[in-house]
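Lab manual, section 2.4: Encoding a predicted structure.

Procedure: take the sequence of the chain (390 residues), apply the prediction step described in section 2.3, and record the output as structure tokens. A sample record is shown.
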Amino acid sequence: MLERARELHDKVRQWRRQLHRYPELGFNVHNTADFVSEKLRSFGCDEVVTGIGRTGVVGVIHGQGDSTGSVVGLRADMDALPIHEETGADWASNFPGCMHACGHDGHTAMLLGAARILAEERRFSGKVVLIFQPAEEGAGGGREMVEDGLMERFGVDRVFAMHNMPGISVGHFAIKPGPIMASASRLKLKVTGKGGHGALPHTTKDPIVAICAMVLEMQTIVSRNVDPLEPLVVSVGKIGGGEGISVIPGTAEFAGTVRTLSSDTTDLAERRLTEIIGGLAQAHDVQADLEFMRNYPPTINHLVETELAIETARTVSGDEQVATGIAPLMASEDFAFMLNARPGAMIFIGNGESANLHHPAYDFNDDIIPAGISYWVRLAERVLADLSAA
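Recorded output:
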């Protein structure tokens, strides 16, 4: 299978670089979805359905015999990021301020390569459902596809995803059961006080002083409210208020994020943030309006499906090249919504020593394409064999 994937390497690399040149954001992945749909139809997929979760694409490949058997879903993401590319590559983005800085172009291309082999060989019973998802980068395309009936409409029994990871050697894999990526919640706070002259602070209700106290005190949630062995991140990434150096403004704002590996810790963080900000608002005699928005849940791999992923990765790269006890990442992934709907697992494939994800100098490493394709094909065959035997 790896040899067959290598035969497709040049072609899939061309697809990947084509997608890289023309990145699209969020749900506005119309050209990318058209590209994917055209390829799936050309491979002879039995069904190609567009518009799932707004702009998602689903391809269905029937196996041998009765096509009403078990169903495995394989997911890739299609959207890019609002980042100005600095790779200098010949295939760099044609759209200033927009680039594939997370490798979704590579994920889509590898799954297309696997789709071609699966459609040609069909060495499985049941069905393979190929899921090409929009809007992973913050807009919740995975949630939209699930809410649009993805799992029920296509009868998916298990679902899997793969993400490239800089810092892991090319062609190596990494995975763990249980939480592998964090939840993501968004914070937005507006503090309203009373502005005035900077030389007369006693006549004001200073929102700047209040909001600074809140930002500092919020960190005690991590250090004093949560078990030190339970991961929690509380970060403020944006803060603002005022325009003049001698003017105390009437309002100040901040925005940030909370990351956890469990819903209980998210509940605790939200409660303590509300209490701390409310208490400090009262102490500073200001009004505080806090929004706590739960965006993505934690990405939690299921045990049986993780073992199937591990076994498959070992057949591709060998036992020593598959790490099975990695630490969870505090970044988030909306594949979490699919794992909440069906059992499955996400695995990381090494991108080598590249720039990090979401960096303007990042680029997907085309050398990992054969391993990624081979993993997808073998996983589909292995999972469907396991479901048939159950």
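Check your result against the sample. The chain is about 35% helix and 25% strand.
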